[in-house]
Amino acid sequence: MSRERLADLIREARRAVVFTGAGMSTESGIPDFRSPGGVWSKMRPIYFDEFVSSEERRREAWTRVYSGVLGWTGAKPNAGHYAVARLVARGKVAAVITQNVDNLHQDSGVPSERVIELHGNATYATCLDCGLRHELEVLKQSFLGLGEIPSCRACGGLVKTATISFGQPMPPVAMARAEAATLAADLFLVLGSSLVVYPAAGFPLLAKDKGARLAIVNREPTEQDQFADVVLHEEIGAVLGDVVPAD
After folding, report:
1. Domain 1-30+77-119+170-247 class?
2. DSSP-derived 3-state class of residue 91
3. Which of 48, 95, 119, 240 has the fewest CB neighbours in a 10 Å radius?
4. Calpha distance 98→22 (Å, rounded)
C-alpha cells in the first residue's frame, strides 16, 4: 500500500524535490561514512584546519584519494539513481539535493545544473584560494610519481578535493539553492538519509511546513518519519524500480 501511495504522490507532483543521503549510494557498494562499521570508524577524518595547516595531513589526504580506501572509486549508479534520473527527465523533479559526493546522480543522467551538492564532489579538486577546478587524473602523476602535493597551477594555492571536510563551512550557494528548491516543492522525497546531519536535515521539515507532501524511503526509521505522508523502510532501488518504471 505504501508503494501505491508513493506512486500517487509522485503522479500528483508538479515540482518535486529529491533529497539523497548515504543510503542512496550504499546500494552501489559505496560504504556509509558515519554509521558503525563505516569509513570514519576505521580511519580518522582529516579536518579542514588540519589540511590547511599541516603538510603531513595534506599528504595523507591525497594518499587516501589515490589509494581508493575511501570506497567510491569505480562505483556505478544503481536502480535508484536511474529512477531519479527518469523523474527529472519526465519533468516531475525540479532539483536533486544530495549529501553524497560521488557524482552518481550526474553519471545516471541527471543534468549537473539540477544537482545541488551540499557536501561537494569527490571526483575533482579545487583551489582553496582562487577556486580553479583541477582534474584528479592530471594531479595523479605528479603526486604518485614525484611525491608532489598538488598546488594550483594558476595561483599556487592549496588544492583539495572538492568535498566539504569536517570543520569546513557549508557552501553558501548550494545551501541557498537547496533552500529555494525546498520552499518551491510540492513533494519532498527523502531517499537514503537518516536525517540527523544538520542543517541539511532541516530541509524536509521546511518543505512540509510550507505545504509540501513528505515521503521517506530509508532502510532504518528516522526521527522525521512521524511527519511524513508515506514512509517505506525498504531498499531504494527496489521501491523506485517499482514506483517509477522505465518507459
Report:
1. alpha beta
2. coil
3. 48
4. 9
Q: Of these residues, 81, 105, 119, 134, which one is catalytic?
A: 119
Q: For residue 44, what is its C-alpha cell?
A: 580518522
CATH superfamily of this structure's domain 32-71+121-163: SIR2/SIRT2 'Small Domain' (3.30.1600.10)
- The predicted model scores a pTM of 0.92
Residue with more model confidence, 37 or 222: 222
b or e along 219-238 (b: 16 or more beta carbons within 10 Å of the residue's beta carbon)? eeebebbeebbbbbeebbbe
Q: Does residue 31 have a cis bond before it (omega within 30 degrees)?
A: no
Helices then strands, counting H and E runs in the chain, come out as: 11, 9
Residue-wise pLDDT tens digits, 44-80: 889 999 999 999 999 999 999 998 766 556 689 999 9
**Strands 133-135 and 120-127, how do they pair?**
antiparallel
Enumerate the domain spans of the chain: 1-30+77-119+170-247, 32-71+121-163
Respond yes or no: is residue 233 known to be catalytic. Answer: no
pLDDT at 40 over 80: no
